[in-house]
Fold this protein.
Amino acid sequence: MLAAEPAAARLVAGCTGLTPRSITIDPALRIAVDALALEELHGVEKGGERLRIGAATSLRTLAGMAGAGALAAAARQVGDEVLQRQGTVGGNLAMSGRAPHDLATALVALDGSVEVVGAGGRHQVGADQLCDPGFTFADDQVVVALEVGLPSGSWAYRKLTTNAGGYGVGTVAVHHDPERGPRVVVNPGTGVPSRLTAVEEVVARGGSGEELSAAAARAMAHIEAADDPLASARYRRRALVGTVESTIEEMGGTAR
Ligand SMILES: Cc1cc2nc3c(=O)[nH]c(=O)nc-3n(C[C@H](O)[C@H](O)[C@H](O)COP(=O)(O)OP(=O)(O)OC[C@H]3O[C@@H](n4cnc5c(N)ncnc54)[C@H](O)[C@@H]3O)c2cc1C
């Protein structure tokens, strides 16, 4: 239905990301395809070293999930408890690239992937693709599940907000797997996560303090940041340097 009538049909899940205006403004829109009715999108599987989370899983379920590391921490930062009960993992990921959505930042830090299915078949969208500013999910693509290796090592996730409990203006996720090395990921409000590879190199050799600050500042200066009424791009770049540093400091958190 999504492929056959792309202008008329829209996939909906928890409906927390669809404003009434976004639905009523488009006169062509007349079919809501209920993602929550698709059996395949439900369920969580832990097999071997992998964790697979169905797209219909609520953010609240993910928020309390043992073993999900920075992903669970990110889900706990989405809106409030009511929103987390209603909103889904798939809806959150599908909105990445369009706004500062939380899960994609953590997913990239964990080097995870997203399983999608559509008229073009079924495939995995990797972390690197999510970091491509040109990437969007096609209108007929359904997010089926996300997949990560069971996080080992240490991780942390932080959200920079305009004020306590306010809107997020940027997110940072870090994960240091002893075998694969550190991954430091920032989303400065654009919805597109970026890896700070220069900062990762400093973390890998145990650098900290001023060396880390300087690397974070240099890396952030080259990242495209959102510039909107919540925060200017300049503010985001400068403030997120501090968030990157404090997230790395906090990374002592035990992987679950
Ligand atoms: C008050 C408020 C605060 C919010 N705060 C945050 C926040 O802090 N962080 C954050 O990240 N987001 C936030 N959001 C945005 C949004 O609610 C969440 O991202 C939520 O996870 C969306 O999930 P949903 O199931 O409600 O998606 P829906 O609203 O049902 O859908 C959202 C979009 O995703 C598409 N979609 C849904 N499911 C799938 C799927 N399985 N495959 C492909 N496409 C799909 C839909 O077509 C639609 O375009 C907030 C929203 C509100 C209203």
Notes: Residues 10-18, 35, 41, 55, 59, 78-79, 83, 87-88, 90-92, 94-95, 101-102, 137, 142-143, 168 surround flavin-adenine dinucleotide (CB under 6 Å). The radius of gyration is 18 Å. The chain has ten helices and eleven strands.
